[in-house]
Amino acid sequence: MIGIFDSGIGGLTVVKKFFDWFDKDNLSYRLLYFGDTARTPYGNRGEEVIKQYALEDAKLLIERGAKIIVIACNTVSAIATDYLKNNLSVPVFEVVSPAAQKAVAITRHNRIGILGTRATINSKIYDHLIKQYAAKAHKKIGVFENSASLLVPLVEEGWLDTPETKRIIKKYLSPLKAAQIDTLILACTHYPFLIKEIEAKLNKQVKLVDPALEVVLQVKEFLKNNSAIEQQLNHKSKHQFLVSDLTNRVQNLAARWLGEKIKLEKVNLK
User: So which residues are the catalytic ones?
Assistant: First the structure.
């Protein structure tokens, strides 16, 4: 199985991109998803707590058969990727580096905006990686970041197209628009649920980068070149969706966001 985890159910944007790939290529890989709905959001936590939560989440997936771990959370990707790689025996993928690479490749005027949680922005991981990739591409790129932590609870509450949410989005995007960005990374897997509202507040020429799509493309390339691991993936079981706290609201939102009926299972972290 391919194990995917996030601090809540926003990581279902990554699941959706995996499903699109499976359908397009007629594949039967199985996904094991865990959303830590009892402790969401991670974006306002300290680094040590985020690392602890991330390791607990990943171990849960591995214990249930995951052969690959995908961090469907920009906050964890920014803070705990190396920590997980050093403490786990399976391949670990994250959403930050592929998104940064994509943004560097497509920017036209070398002005990239980052919209993310406070922890992601404070980590400066996107700024570091973009400038690293830019140097390799012989580009000089300006990076403009803004924290948008309120968007996570709004998405988790299902407030996707309310007037309040639209006003908050406008406020968060204002400094990025003033910086005349031409590319924007949605640096939280919750944000693609608000993509229509975000696009409506941006110049039509601004290109959006969805880390969910970019990490799926990276996993696809990895499996193509690592047949031994690819052969370990379970093709016969069903997709499984686990959460640490299960409510009717979470169940209904998950099904609506994924676009199909799914059964969430509540599990306890050790």
Answer: 73, 188
Distances (CA, A) of 136 to 111, 116, 124, 139, 222: 17, 25, 19, 8, 22
DSSP secondary structure string for all residues of 68-89: EEEE--HHHHHHHHHHHHHH-S
Among residues 145, 104, 105, 140, the alpha carbon closest in space to that of 122 is found at 145
CB 5 within 8 A of CB 69: yes
211-224 and 12-25 helices, crossing angle to 10°: 50
87-98 residues labelled b (16+ CB within 10 A) or e (exposed): ebebebbbbbbb
Cα 162 to Cα 126, 154, 156, 192, 203, distances in angstroms? 29, 10, 13, 16, 21
pLDDT in tens, 9-38: 889 999 999 999 999 999 889 999 999 999
pLDDT tens readout for residues 103-141: 999 999 999 999 998 888 998 999 999 999 999 999 999
Closest C-alpha among 67, 121, 106 to residue 230: 67
- Cβ count within 10 A of residue 200: 14
- 129 is written with which tokens? 């990686």
Contact yes or no for 1/236 (Cβ under 8 A):
no
Identify whether the C-beta of residue 49 lies closer than 8 Å to the C-beta of residue 119: no
Can you state the angle between helices 125-136 and 74-87, rounded to 10 degrees? 80
Whether 190 and 157 have beta carbons less than 8 Å apart is answered as no
